[in-house]
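User: Run a structure prediction on this.
Assistant: Running it now.
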Amino acid sequence: MSNLYILDHPLIQSKITKLRNKDTSNKEFRELVSEISSLICYEASRDLVLDDTTVLTPLGETKGKILENKIGVVAILRTGIGMAEGILSLIPNAKLGHIGLYRDPNTLMPIEYFCKVPEDAEHCEIFVLDPMLATGGTASAAIQFIKERGIKKIKYLCLIAAPDGVKRVQKDHPDVDIYTAAFDEYLTEDGYIFPGLGDVGSRLYGTK
């Protein structure tokens, strides 16, 4: 069963509270999404492997550690893009990919319309980004499409998760750990997470 990590760091909890506030401006909302994403990534990257290395300081030689893992970031369009900046500010050498999905009106099955992942993604640790884990349908489908490209090391990062979405990802992808800043109560009839923070796309970009 995949693990659910609800991050209770004071900085994360303070920023997620500001993010929820309906009076937070689009500009501040975007900044908060980036900052929270960076902090979530910090926690999600604790088990990355380090290699021993030697460097020269201005005073002489010393031993140190350097990241061994290749890191890839795959943002689920379109709101996952808002999280990517924060991750790249922390790991600037990470490779960035995108995946876009829509739901077929007849079958209601998710259809991939765009997918670009790093060329060597099968050798990378991949962080899948999407602010809201609601029903889990999009998250599960995106992870499946990514796995079909030979990628095995995957973590899912979101800002807020609902019980339905967590159960779906845990059921479909028990090998994928979930990192979130908040675990909310339930989904409304319209599919919004409650109490949540409203429509992320509208608040990120000012457009529905």
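The domain at 4-205 is CATH 3.40.50.2020 (Rossmann fold).
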